[in-house]
Amino acid sequence: MAVPKRRTSASKRDKRRAHDALTAPHVIACPQCGEPTLRHRACPHCGTYRGRKVVETGEG
After folding, report:
1. Contact predicate 9/1, CB 8 Å
2. 17 within domain boundaries
3. What is the pLDDT of residue 7?
């Protein structure tokens, strides 16, 4: 089996992992009900998106 000829240095390892960082989700407050929701998605609490009711919820 093939094995590395030289040990990978910490610098080389860290440069390779430079793009692996996780980003936090972009959470905003819903303009209708104020609940936290993800951007560009219907609010799971009140069911509105861009001022219109698009999803039926148990709220009414």
Report:
1. no
2. no
3. 96
